[in-house]
Design brief:
653 residues, mainly beta, 4 domains
Length: 653
Amino acid sequence: MNWIYKQTIIKKEYFHILAGIFIAVFFCLLGLFNIKDVSAATVECIDCADCSSKIQSAVSGDIVILTADITNQDGNCIDFGGSANGITFDGDNHSISGDYDYSGYGVWLNRISNNTVKNCDISGFYKGAYAYSGSNNTFQNIDSHSNRSSGIEILYSYLNTVSDSFLHENRSYDFYFYSDSETNCNNTLTNVIGSDNRPIGFYNSSVNLADQEFSALYLCNADNSTLDNITINGSSSLSNNGLRVFYTDNTSFNNVTSSNNNRGILLSDSNSNNLQNIQCNSNYNGGIFVDESQNNIINSAQTNSNSQCGIYIMESPSNSLNDITSSNNSSVGIYFDRSSLNTLENATIDSNNYGISTGGSLSITVKDSHITNNRSYGIGLNPPNNSGAYLIHNNYFSNLVNASLSKTYANTWNTALTAGTNIVNGPSLGGNYWAKPNGSGYSQNCVDGDRDGICDISYTIGTNNIDNFPLADYSPTHTISGTVNYYNGEKVVPDATVILSAFSGTHFIFISTTTDTNGYYEFTDLEEGWNYHISVSKEDDSNEITGSDITMIAQHIVGINPFGSIFQMIASDVNESKSVTGADITMIAQYVVGLITELDSGDWKFYSTENTPTEANYLTNGMERVINPTSDMTDQNFTGVKMGDANGSWGIE
């Protein structure tokens, strides 16, 4: 018996040991595989305070279900508190509505993880649903609209998911995301629709996108991507959404339009990207914002009519901006904020409050640009020290204040004087063209005695800031030349006086020359931009009208031998009656025998060869040329007619 009793005791002890081991393994597996506690509960709530209280007292696996609409809530509504983990809040498709003073959050997850929010209609708050600094949270089947800032916002968080949701008509962003590390790029959006029923795209790996339209678009840690012909259009009634790029390098953005949005394009912590043919106009919070990003190229961009800045470069060195138009922005056309070693060239910066600002930046280059009609100043220089001077050359300035210098550090306003076409088409490269809208600018009034396109005296912009080679007004010059031929085509007309005249404003030009023995004339050094009037006259050098001319005119009148040329008729109409009659014969006969010394018509008429006179207009038209040369103009010829010489026999032996 004792032996049997001892064996029974031993078996019971083994049973208890095995049972303990089993229970320990079970609970380990429960934690390892996140198996829900069998005690998880489903509870109901009716308002913000009730739901928040039950969520904050729930345990992992619990489900809190809203059973009634919430309206006119002031401040935060559904608050998960600071320790909720593994909790599901199910709105059961009820409305969660703020009081539309746009304060508070509809659903608030602060530094917590592994929670789910689903089946909610959220509106009237500052932010619809807000997850801050958490992970593994899920938003499913959310309709978030009419919130002041954002529909759903995920900030400094990772491994979160938004799916099957409609985020629309939120004032700033339907979906707002910001990342301060590549880790935070690891979030997922699936089947999320934004304002005007366009998709919200979120990509965190290399992607090729072409010929697509989004309500909002995000790239985060999406190196080596390609975007071509992409349009971002937020709400048609609100300026919301945009293109936001984080931690993305070596990506091509070509033919991208992001206009009438909140901010056109944000480039944050993203390097060595190429933005080509970009349209960012009429955005609520600026056109292009480059933040802590370097070695990017922005080429052929339009950033016009934006609130705030056209382009804002902040703490971003070594970027290149080329062929930029940034006009009519409410604040600054282009702002370099603590951003050194940037280059701006071939830009048009017009009609902003401030043209270009350079706060706290060093070694900025601005060249080959038109900076005009900006209200406060054209360019404002505010370097932090004198260790990196700005280089500003070959620009066209025309503002009430062209340059504003907050410090007296020396900057470079010109290159070495070299031959080359400058920004006002002058023949020399050096400094800048300094104009004023009222015409009182230095370059508009300086003396350029040698016509090299450079003012003869340097221009002082401010203390220690001198443009040594300011550009002068310059118009290219051209030659106008031609030949005066006699109407029979067999002779030229030498010793004719050719007159050139032009009038512009208060300036008048009058030049004359004489045709040479070949009938040739020439005017040189004529500036562009003028309408030059050229006409020809001649004093009679001999009386070569004879009886044969009278006979030919008489034969024409009676129809025996009609004239074959309009110029014969012109030569015969010496009384300028617009017809050839016996009265013309009488006047010519009197002139030949010396009874009169002048013909009513004068001795000569000359016609531009570009206009063949007719019987209807030969007394009024075609007697001058009007030329606005853009190159040398040759063969500007005229035809001469000796009045009374009907047979074309005029000539000098």
